[in-house]
Amino acid sequence: MTKNKDHCISACATPVRGEAGRTGDWRAERPVIVLSKCTPSKTKKASCYLCWLYCPEGAITRSIPVEIDLTYCKGCGICAAECPTKAIRMEPEDQFFATECPAPETEMRKRRRTSKKGSEGKGK
Amino acid sequence: MRRVKIINGNESAALGAKLCRVQVVAAYPITPQSKIPETLAQYVESGELKAEFIRVESEHSALTVCISASTVGARVFTATAANGLAYMHEQLHWAAGARLPIILALANRGLGAPWTIFNDMQDSIAQRDTGWMQVYCRDNQEILDSIIMGYRIAEQISVPMMVCFDGFILSHTVVPVEIPEQSEVDAFLPPYVPHLQATGGEPININPVVLAEPRANASGERCPSYMGFRMRLQEALAGAGETILEVGRAFGRAFGRDYSYFVSEDRCEDADIVLLTMGSLANEATVAADSLRERGCKAGAVAIRVFRPFPSDPLRRALARVKHVVIFDKNISYGNEGATCTETKAALFDGGLHPLVTNYIVGLGGKNVTAVDLTAATLKAVETQTHPAQPQWLGVAV
Fold first, then answer.
1. B161, B152 in Cβ contact below 8 A?
2. A3·B98 Cβ contact <8 A
């Protein structure tokens, strides 16, 4: 056990999941796994797991089916490069933006939506 | 009646460390401080001091060993000089950033090239921005006392300290030094409790990468950003003054020598002109002030004891009514002037004080500086009565 009298005096980290923050948002490319090509997922037998072995972030689970934790995956692409059956491919992250990160309603848009008809464009 | 030993500055530093019951010593030989680790090695070998003496291949490693040992809770000590301190530079930043109360005894020596083994303060002044406290001693008694006080101050505020003293002038000169009893030092100095207690079990990453914004760690505690840690180090040093005074006062009560001051003042009450120095030169400045008074020049002497944190307020108070300050620097910031001159002027500016300031660069590479030299230089400064654009080099013909 470690006890920090005051964790603000000097920096200290414990190696646990998430200690370095949600590193998934560093990703420029996303690994997409095709389970029909992935050996353990397809055969339902614990085997291969080279992606799990090589993942430097520990973001891949040695399970059936294999799972990639996108909260922490930084998108390095090592899993895709190592997969012997080419079951993982790297896709540009921006194509997921529209569905996963809808633009938040800004104050300006909200005002525009709730404002009375005809008031827009006046006073220019 | 306390025991008095006739010893040199190096032995005084080693004895101070021994009385503080340091647990780990790592140092590399370099003139003029080699006698410090040699003496400590002897203490360890004879069983007088229960400590690990770790032999290293360089000063960089010496401080690295100290950083590691201090992190896990040992009271550690190292000593060096000149190029050895320069070689520690990276780890000096690390020790302060990791907030480890390491005490480093420094026998001030000039830096190469060209080589010199003799005294000036270029080595420690060049490290003033590493986040260490810096204390400058005027005699061998102050070396021993500053080390004992140093541990109490450093461990209280988690900031390392350099105890600086002039190489050869103090390190190799034997004078009487009063040695406190071990029991007295034990009563004065509580055991070291590190701010981070690593007791085994779960692994931890100490001083990992820290991002530019504050972030919650895995246990949900909000942790400072990089700038947050830097700001806290500055706050610790800026606020160290109170602790330094308090410990200096407590030392006076325990041992009869009070250190509750940042600058020493001699004959300053009615002084028109003040000789400002640091380290052992303070003794010559005091004699020079006396001799100037005999010639009808109302002189006083001010010596900076604590250089980091810089004593701006005490200096402003000491120099408030002075018309002319003559600053003697055993260092130079090339392209500008001596460091104590720059910093003193900044302190005066903030206080709205504008005395005439003359800066002399003196004693580099062991060049002898006598009270007669200081007297003559002060008289010359009084005669010219102008702000010289450049610092004056005392006694340099070629």
1. no
2. no
